[in-house]
Structures are given as C-alpha cells and as structure tokens.
Amino acid sequence: MDDRRIEKAISILLRGGVLFSAMVVLCGGILYLAQFGNRVPDNHVFHGEPTELRSVSGTIRAALSGRAGGIIQLGLLLLILTPIIRVVISVVAFAAEHDYMYVTFTLMVLAVLLYSLTGP
Amino acid sequence: MDTTAFTFVVFFGSLVAGFLGALTGLGGGVVIVPLLTLALGVDIRYAVGASLVSVIATSSGAAAAYLREGFSNIRIGMFLELATTLGALLGAHLASHLPARVIAAIFGIVLLFSAYFSVREHPKISSDQTPDPLAQKLKLDGSYPTPEGMQEYHVRRVPLGFGLMFGAGTLSGLLGIGSGAVKVLAMDRAMCIPFKVSTTTSNFMIGVTAAASAGVYLRRGYIDPGLAMPVMLGVLCGSMLGAAALIRLRTHVLRILFSLVIVALAIEMILNAIKGRI
C-alpha cells in the first residue's frame, strides 16, 4: 500500500464514519423527540447520565432494546470510534512501510485512546 | 420550553456556530459552550461533553478533505498526537475535579486568546533552514505542494512543540474545544512548520485528541444524548454549509466580526465565573 492509497482509505473512513454515526444519531433523535418531546428538559443541574449510558456495553444494550437515548449514545460512540479506527489503519500502514518507530508511536496513541474509553 | 423546542433552539444555534466556525477556521466549539451555558443555562460539563462530540464530527469531515490535497503531514500528526491525547486525558480528569466557575474562567481566557490569534497576521517563515537532528531522527521533515512545485520544509524545536501540544490537548479535554489556535501556535511558531501544513495537520489531529477526552466524558456520564444530539447534527450541517460557502465569500470582515462576538462571550463567561453564576 502506498501513501496516497492509505490517505484515500483514511479519507473515506472519516467521511463514512461521520455520516453513518450522524444517521444513527438522527434516527435516535427522532425517536427521542417522539417519546419525550413535551417534557421539560433537565440539564441545568448536573447529575450525570444513568450508569447504563456510561459504558460501551451498556450503550449497546440500551440501543438494542430500542431506547432512544441508547440509540443516540450508540451513534455518538460510533463517532468517537471513527478517529480510533483511523489510528488502527495508521498502525497497519506504518507496519507495511517497516517504519517500526512510527508503529510504536501509533500503538502508544491507540493505547491512550482505548484506556480513555474502557479504563477504570 | 419543552424538550422539542429546546432541541430545535440548540440545533439552530449549533448550525450557526458550525457555519461561522468553518468560515473563520476557529471551529464551532468556541461558541457552543458559551451558547449553551450563558444563553440556555446548561451545566458546563454537559455543554463541554456535547461540544467535544461536535468537534470530532467537524474535524473528521474536514480532515478527509485536506488529506486528499496532500498538505497534512501524517508523521508530524501522529507524533504530536502522543502529546495531545495524553494532555486530553489530563484535561478530562481535571474537568471532573475543578469547580464549574474555574472551568468557565479558563474558557473565557482561552476565548480571548483565540480571538486575538484569528485576527493577527501570521508571520512568514523563511524556508532556508538547516535541518534539526531530532526532527530528522523522528522523520518529521516533509514537503507540500505550492504553485511553484513541491516545497520542502524542516521541522525545528521538537521538545517545545511537543510540550505546547500537551497543553493544547489538556485545554481540549477540559473545555471541549479543538484548541486549533494553540495547536497552530505550537506547529507554526515553535516548530517552524509552514502555515498550510500546520493548519491541515492540526485539523487531522483534533478528532483523535477529542476522542481521547470524549471517552472519559462518556464514562463519567457527562455526555447527555438529548443535548449532544442537536449539537452534533447542528454543528455538522453548519460546518458543511460553511465549507461550501467559504469558496465564494470574502472572510476577512467576517473573521473580525466573529472575533468580536468571541471577545464579548469571553468577557461574559469570565464575569459569570467571578460572580459565581455558572
């Protein structure tokens, strides 16, 4: 794989990831307004989201059971995953070029990202 | 105001923020947080969480376009992402320990700084520089297309740039902004990277940096789906429209006007922080 092809692949991934996650958020949003549209919004005082919407597995469960908040959160999670997948592609690309210094740097960035999403 | 009305107000506010952010290159994040906290009374941590998500959306969309033009330097981006993602983790952790008014005050100061940077002329950097040994070892030097053909450049002061990038990442994680101004400062002023390369590479990095702090925000329960939904969709639509309009509009006057708006928001944020109303 040469540089231009990698850049093209990354470019398609970024655009596709953003559009796909926006579609999921939009679907969840329509459902959300249909269900809770006439309630009074409650975000003036901070109390944190329910535990369910705080983890990757909880969000997937909530989305699969058709809850609007869960579907939106799944779309947001897909959006957060888009740049993470970009970093994964970069690891492969640097490895194909036998640039092991940059494979190491990129793996370190990936470790930070995965820690942030799943860490304690 | 019920949830439907609130959602539409946030959507249109975010649309305008994304549009102006794309036109002026400042990004939508700098106005989203003041809009949500000052005008709509949303808690600053929810506002920052929603803004972070919109930052990922716009930066990924823009990076896709820039990559194909050949300006971004992927090695510089990846190396400096080490600094920005670690900084972003620190910023996200700070966000849960600092009082809301302290975050608001820091936000105001960073806004003033961004406004200053957007109107200031960026200095021309001479291209006849001697290579820097550390930059060469890290393979950071590169070339970019100009009307006169490919132009080579040498990267300098790597440790200083890396340190500034850590700071940019911290601000991004704490305030939910792309902190493009600090990133460009680090790359174009400290590391002597050509302006076009620094701005596009910075954009390329913003998504990864924001993803690092967004993960922490999600796990802390700071990302509210009902609020993040209209913010993300609004900023995304706005920035797409902005990018399309950019080709046809003269942005100099707009940039000055937008900077004045940011200065006003900055002062309002700082005053509210002092009075403890945030």
Summarize the structure.
Chain A is mostly helical and 120 residues long. Chain A contains 4 helices and no strands.
Task: Give a verbal description of the structure.
The complex is a heterodimer of chains A (120) and B (278). With 120 residues, chain A is an all-alpha fold. Chain A has one domain. Chain A is 76% helix and 0% strand. Chain A is built from four helices and no strands. Chain A has helices at 3-36, 56-64, 68-96, 100-118. The N and C termini of chain A lie far apart (37 Å). The mean pLDDT of chain A is 88. With 278 residues, chain B is mainly alpha-helical. Chain B has one domain (3-275). In chain B, strands 1-2 form a two-stranded antiparallel sheet. In chain B, strand 1 (142-146) and strand 2 (149-153) form a beta hairpin. Chain B is globular. At the A-B interface, helix 1, helix 3 and helix 4 of A face helix 1, helix 3, helix 4, helix 9 and helix 10 of B.
